[in-house]
Amino acid sequence: MGLVDPTRLLNDSNAGKKAKDSLSSFSKSRQALIEMDEKELRRMEEDFVKQASVLSAAAKSEREQIFRRRMAEYQQKAAELNREVQEKQKDVLDAFREKLEVVVEKVAKRHDLQVVLDKGKGGPTVYSDGALDLTAEVIEEFNREYP
Q: What pTM was computed for the model?
């Protein structure tokens, strides 16, 4: 039996670092889009507050409707961008996990192991002898295969 720490594999392997960087840049680009819309909404609100005293009731009503419509569009767009980020995260992590499983299998076969367990937080392992930990070896193998 052997153990691996998937968090360390993600954080310390070259492929894991690339996956995290990819997710980070994707998330930042989506966040920038959301922030642009937020600024526009704040500007619209500030303009409305400044001009409210000189606007007619009809003009106020029209501006409020436009603002509400823009706010609804913003909320819909923000939700869609968040879904995109979650889907991207799932895709990237699934691809990483597939590569990881291949590498873990190679290391396990090299050591003639029948089982390799997840020793990360929330994994099935409560206690283990440090000698069973294959994480460092898996990282080395991973970095050789996926530089």
A: 0.73
